[in-house]
Amino acid sequence: MRILDSPPPGWLHRRRRLLLDVLLWAVVAAPVGYAEASPPHSRYTLPLLVGKLFVLGAAVVASRRQPLVALVLAVLGSLVDGNFVFAIPVFSYLAGRRSATVGPAIMVFVLITAGGTALNLGLLGAGAATWFLLASVLLFAAVFPWLVGRYRRQQQELTDAGRRHVDALTREQRGAAERIRLRERARIAGEMHDSLGHDLSLIALRAAALEVAADLDDRHRAAAGELRASVSAATERLHEIIGVLREEAGGSLRPSGETVADLVEGAREAGMAVRLDAAPAVAELPAMTGHAAHRIVREALTNAARYAPGAPVDVRLSRDGDRVEVAVVNDAPSAGPLPAPPSQGSGLLALAERVRLAGGTLDAGHRADGGFTVRAVLPATAAPPEAIGSVAEGGLTSWSDERPGAVERPVDAERRLHDARRRVRRSLLVALVAPVGFGLVLSFVYYPVATAGTVLDRATFDQMRVGAARSELVGLPRRQLERSAAVERAGCEYYTDGNFPLAAPTWRLCFTDGRLVSKEWIA
Questions:
Q1: Are residues 483 and 505 in contact, defined by beta-carbon separation less than 8 angstroms?
Q2: How big is the CA angle at 450 (ends 446 and 453), to the nearest 5 degrees?
Q3: Structure confidence at residue 69 (pLDDT)
Q4: What is the mean pLDDT of the chain?
Q5: 3-state secondary structure of 415
Q6: Is there a contact between 319 and 279 (Cβ–Cβ < 8 Å)?
Q7: Number of other residues whose CB lies within 10 A of the CB of residue 122
Q8: Looking at residues 281-287, what average pLDDT do you find?
Q9: What is the pLDDT of residues 54-75, one digit of tens each?
Q10: Contact between 122 and 71 (Cβ < 8 Å)
Q11: Residue 385: what pLDDT?
Q12: Which string of DSSP letters, residue by residue, matches 62-79?
């Protein structure tokens, strides 16, 4: 049995677009095709029809990527065939719907208006009434549909912005839960490392002291060695567990009320030679700095007990202005380090992260004489809450990535949603107000041109007497109003009373042999 291949993912989309374009072409071509198909026919009917349909097809194709080009083709086609006017609202709506910016559309409308005015008033000699009619057609058949399309585009952007906002909030909620989980894992890892790691190191130190005691018999010395080896193995397993639980930005807790002096005292009781030099000015430190200093001393003493047993250790805390320096220095072990599993360096890595979160810097490394130094510089004043929160959360509240495909923050999504709502309200207001405003502008432009020198007031009209010579009529306007076929009579002149905005004929004065034979008001 043959298995048919499924169509490619974009095939159905392209087929749907093609069907929509064909349907659009059929709609805009129907008025043109119907007019050309109606008799009478000439020998140029078929070529003209093919040319007009080709222009409409080109406009449909261009409407996908260059919708303003399609609108211009429809407007130019209306110069040859008035039935192209039916296509202008369609392509104008698509231009508003598919154009990302408004500047090019405004430029096109300005050029169409200027070109149409120059063509009708200059080259063709059309009157003001014809110009006003064509300008009104441009307003309601092109500008208004474009505004509606623009409004629909803004609505779609508002929908997309709302969806992105919901997605960002969902990601933020998931991220908050993940951060809580990671902080709890880091807290557990910190507790295990700080408490158990330190205690195990001290136990190993005591066991090592028993192992080298001179008054201990061989059986007890072997047991002490086994105890030290077991503690070292347990410490290594503890580091493996911490490596699973620890996250890079993890925090840790210290026993309540324990100070650096308590740490030093505990190490002395375990047999370490530790000297503490702490300035009185460092007694009161900010919480982040105090925790970091405690963590530095604990980690350094643990490493000294593990890798330099019997070597003297100096712990110094000093303050210089708004900075606090914490230094733990141990000499090289006299008999070399005891056998122990290789270090993974996780303690110093976590320590460096803790110092960074507190706003300080850490420097740790071997000395030329074989000893080891851990030195940190910390702020002596509390950092602003905003800065701490920004660092602790990995900068999530302090930066925005605008690159394509970057994860959008809820605050950015909220701003986009707000901007989309504002654009939709503005587009709706423009779609409702702009046609009225443009209509008033057209009226104010058309009215002075159409009525200049043609206004006859009622009082002057009433004073005119039938039978008077035309030269004797006082207040007769200097020019006549353009006449329409509905009211035109031979030998008659038409004037307006200045009605706004159409300036339609109001008075009819008929003359025979230069004398007024009738005057009437046109309803």
A1: yes
A2: 140
A3: 92
A4: 77
A5: helix
A6: yes
A7: 9
A8: 74
A9: 999 999 999 988 999 999 999 8
A10: no
A11: 45
A12: HHHH-HHHHHHHHHHHHH
Q: CA nearest 364: which of 286, 299, 427?
A: 299
Helix (H, G, I), strand (E, B) or coil at 509: strand
Token pair belonging to 140: 């309601």
Whether the CB-CB separation of 90 and 28 falls below 8 Å is answered with yes
Token pair for 483 = 């006449």
- Helix, strand, or coil (residue 149): helix
H helical segments located in 385-493: 385-392, 410-451, 458-463
Q: What is the largest CA-CA distance in the chain?
A: 155
Query: In whole angstroms, what is the distance from residue 426 CA to residue 97 CA?
Result: 15
CA-to-CA distance for 310 and 330, rounded, in angstroms?
10
Angle formed at CA 171 by CA 170 and CA 174, multiple of 5 degrees: 90
Q: Sort 14 into a burial class: Cβ within 10 Å, 0-12 / 13-18 / 19+.
A: exposed
- pLDDT confidence of residue 223: 78
Encode pLDDT of 202-247 as tens digits: 777 777 777 767 677 777 777 777 777 777 777 776 666 666 555 4
- Asked whether 382 and 290 are in contact (CB, 8 A), the reply is no
Q: Which of 512, 415, 523 is nearest to 470 (CA)?
A: 512
Which residue do the tokens 């009082």 mark?
A: 459
Which band of pLDDT confidence, cut at 50, 70 and 90, is reported for residue 406?
very low
Distances, alpha carbon 113 to alpha carbons 107, 436, 442, in Å: 10, 17, 11
